[in-house]
Amino acid sequence: xxxxEQVFGQAPEVSASAPGRVNLxxxxxxxxxxxxxPTAIPQRATVGLRRNGTDTHVLYSANLDRTLHVPxxxxxxxxxxxxxxxxxxxxxxxxxxxxxxSEVPSGGLSSSAAxxxxxxxxxxxxxxxxxxxxxxxLRGVQVEHEFVGVQCGVMDQLxxxxxxxxxxLLIDTRSLERRAVPFPAGAxxxxxxxxxxxxxxxxxxNERRAQVEAAAELLGVPQLxxxxxxxxxETLPSPLRERARHVVSENTRVLAGxxxxxxxxxxxxxxxxxxxxxxxxxxxxxxxxxxxxxQAQADVFGARITGAGFGGAVVALVREGTAVAVxxxxxxxxxxxxxxxxx
Length: 343
Fold this sequence. Notes:
Belongs to the GHMP kinase family. GalK subfamily. By secondary structure, this protein is an alpha+beta fold.
């Protein structure tokens, strides 16, 4: 890919990167104060910055081989809002040359959060911003809300800012308390791209968030995190009943997974996929096909769609040492759309 020096004729003043993430359990709970269990993936987004002495930001995406020119203080279009949102919220008043490259596939692996966190890390270094890693992640969430138009929760940016590839990160998205959790013994993670594209702002993501907020209001609780008896959701009208059932049961699955062995953890993942498919309705027929192929493999403990849904990636927990072989076998069965992302 084209480097910063090739595009701008000089080296960047600062450069920073951040990883994508895959979520093992705890999907669509983070905007209801719930529990999540992501881990970082090896693929990263990298952002280089250099002041250009003008009143215009020059934004270059090496992946797209595309350059955008956005006046300081404005937002721009295409991929610009992910970057200009970070610049504007950080008080940047001078033009910057910005070079972006990313190894994180789009669709379920938090490519946008990785881009935001990498940009904010670079800005923190360039301007000496007083942002710890949690505050930095929360600024990334603000970018999504105010500039991108996705009313996301806090998981993706927190995972990109705080998680590593060696453990899972349990996050209480209400208190922001977190702790590292080991992977189940004898298991490893396989991530595959279904080849089905999706864009959150054009999907039902914001609609789902509005539905669970309405469900919480009808149940008289601040958030569905506060529902302790899942039977309570059965009093709700459809589809609020199904949406709330997913969130409440998913929180239970995350907590059950903390001490689970690999087989039990895999069963929880399978149950999450069924809940996302049937109650939350954020899956896709081709994604369901890929998940079913993975679940049928002898060395797979469990598999599910990951991320916000409507396409994108799937994650499987597999017997240690078998991820490459399982992924290659399933790609053959699934066809040309699928590909192994991790390992």
